[in-house]
Structure formats: structure tokens, C-alpha cells
Amino acid sequence: MATMFITTFEILKNSAIDRIRDFFSTGWSEEGSTVSQEYETKVLSRNRSALYASLSWVHEYQVINDQDLETFELLKKTRNLLAHKLFEVVTGQTESNHTDQFPVLVELLRKIEVWWVVNVEIPSNPDYADADVDEEGIVPGPILSLQMLLEVASGNTELLEGWRRGRAKLHRRAQPDTSNIATKEPPCA
Predict the structure, then answer these.
(1) 117 with 138: CB under 8 angstroms?
(2) Which of 46, 63, 65, 175 could cysteine-pair with 56, CB 3.0–4.6 Å?
(3) Quick one: pLDDT band at residue 157, thresholds 50, 70, 90?
């Protein structure tokens, strides 16, 4: 569970930073995505750390509250303990309450992800223009990925196999149909 805590904390950090960065993305270059100057002025200018700048941005938009920021700091301390003293924690030489904190970590990740789906993705997708969306029923991609990791770690690969079948099906659909292409060499003139 200690490595799952570290992994989930990294997913949370990526979610906080990447969602906002992608929102301000203007295209792609050889170095990756390019972002507007607005990203620098509205987000990154808040703090030298992209993570804390992003947390400030989601706090301003009331995605998270003051208690969530305090919780994040507590979770960060636990993550750092696990990352730097993993052997000691696993062998019981150092105490850690990461198992008790894990659901809190997942809930904070879910809170940010669901807000993003409800307030950015759904309103910008015309397929959901008049849809009645049940926020409790939303399972964001990072949460689904985390559920899959937990299932696999516990020995159950059913969800992973279903995901693989779905990806393979999508991959087959994306491949061009070559069944009508002649397989013989053209006759020489």
C-alpha cells in the first residue's frame, strides 16, 4: 500500500498541474505542448512551484478549500516519509498512517478530477449539451486507472484484461482496412 500511496500522490500532483496547463495549451511544438502567455500570468505567477501555483488556481476557483490545502500538506508529508523511508515503514521501524490516509488522498484526487469533468469537459462537449449529469456517477480516468492498479496489485486482473480488450478493439478500428489490396506483385512490363 505504501507504493500505491506514492503513486496516487504523483497522480494527484499531475492532475493539479496538467489539467490547468492543458487548459491553457495553444498547440504543439517539437518540445511538446505550447501554452498561452495567460498560463504564465494567471497560474505560474502565483508561485515558483508549478504545483503550488496550480493548487492556488484551483483554490481560487473553489475546486478545493482551505481544509483541502491543509490535507494536501499532510498527505505530502506522508508521501515524503514513504519515499525516503520506505524500507523502515514497510519493516515497521517507522510508523506511518498512509493506509488510513489513502482514502483521503483518493477523495482529493477525485474532487479535482470531477470538478474538471463537470465544469470544463462537459460544457465544452456538444454531445452533453442538454444532458443531466450525476456527479456521483462520474469516474474520471485517473480514478479508473487507480482502481485498475489496485485490482491488479490485489491479484485480480479482470479489469485490466477488459481494458486491454477495449484498447485492442479501438486499435483495430483505427487501422486502415487493407483487405481489398492485392497481395500479388504487379506484372512486369
Answers:
(1) yes
(2) 46
(3) confident
